[in-house]
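Hello,

Our lab assistant flagged a job as stuck in the queue for most of the afternoon. It eventually completed. Since we weren't sure the result was trustworthy after the delay, we are filing this so someone can double-check. Below is the sequence as submitted and the structure that was eventually returned. Let us know if re-running is recommended.
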Amino acid sequence: MRYEVDFLVIGSGIAGLSFALKVAPYGKVCILSKGEAAEGSTRYAQGGIAAVMYDSDSFDKHIHDTLVAGDGICDREVVEMTIREAPDRIRELVQYGVNFDKSRGSDRFDLHREGGHSEFRILHHKDNTGAEIERGLLEAVRSHPNIELKEHQFAIDIITQHHLGQRVTKHTPGIECYGVYALDCRTNEIDTYLAKVTLLATGGMGNVYTTTTTPIVSTGDGVAMVHRARGVLADLEFMQFHPTSLYNPAEKPAFLITEAMRGAGAILKDFKGHEFMHKYDARLSLAPRDIVARAIDNEMKIAGVDHLYLDARGIGKDELINGFPTIYAKCLELGINITKDMIPIRPAAHYQCGGIKVDRNGESSIKHLYAAGECACTGLHGGNRLASNSLLEAVVYAHNAAMSAINQISQSSQNTPNSQIPDWNAEGMVLNEEMVLITQTKRELQELMWNYVGIVRSDLRLQRAFDRLNLIFRETEDLYNRSVLTEELSELRNLIACAYLIIKMARARRENVGLHYSIDLVKDK
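-- returned structure --
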């Protein structure tokens, strides 16, 4: 099937939905969601969204905290723009129907504090903020007459001049995006979606690692598509590991224990129940995530254990149950009463700070192609994302991209007739009946990345990872070139591409900065 729209959105999280709502008055919008519309990283965000809302805080403080967390390599102008726009974007979310908690008996927002923040500035909805944002935006999208939301549609590749028979390399000037090829996961047919403007809001790539807090749909699809289309990518060596996921090896994705719990007074403790963060940073359990994750990783290796603890027993019982109801209920399911018991935790892959390189309008190096949210690299995060800046970045860049796309569509310079763009060609492909080839390779890839390209790296580990990945790549490409395309095979190819990019950029980074830490490098500060 062929579809033609004005605005095509790939992804149904905060970035994709916000963008769709803003461009909808100016043309026909289609949103493609890989799975169920609500099943994305936004839904799993517990802590909240950072913004300066009152005079007790200031833009300068938030800017400073972001720059410090980013370890000196943030784009300062981007940081200032994003943080100063934050209050307006928060007010828009409220207008869309999103509810943030208010202080008791007051109209003022109840604000949390998280690691790396010098003030209480995290707007939240209990401990399920992302789910509340997703609910509010989805309701608004589903009621808009100009927006069509299609679930179980997996974007496979960006359509460029390459599909018109032209040779396209990373040096080709003027690469253009005409839309995407997408797999209908219910019919297994590959459809052609053509658009004047396309936004990638495909989320992260956490599933390149064995243990991750990200949903199973986070397989780096947007980054991999741009890589194949020869677009510009940046900073993918900076993979953030959240220090505190709930230790429960049988569960995937790993359940997140929000940083707001440490902001409320919970303390990290070693396997014997002793505090240890004083050995690593004066900010103790509220140090930035890269520092805390490395400290936990080191303590686990020293003790030879597979998890440590978060002690929330010093927080009042009522505050624990009412302020963190999702965590309380989840732990209780596993026989852990967090008002009496310490919570077993370990780090987990959580957020990619790099991605598709975009300008301040969210436009990529490929014409008519925008990116927002976790898949984009804006310069805000630098070497390490400050807690709760991710939802903020997504909504700010969705707004900027929408304003630019509205202007672009009114004076579209795309000259290629849609009739020249071919449909997907699956001639000669056969159905692969050996699913074990895909599942085993995926498992091998994830373990490879976890062991060699994780929280702490070395030149030898990166070289071994690169050598083994090369073999995995060749085997998978051979399978791809003779198989009918499936969601599982496409995800595996995307994960391999993302792993390659992480390793390549990590090997090129010859200093320890932010989330990239190698035992072979001496920090130059």
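-- support follow-up --
The delay was a queue issue, not a problem with the job. The result is valid. The mean pLDDT is 92. Residues 459-480 form the longest helix (22 residues).
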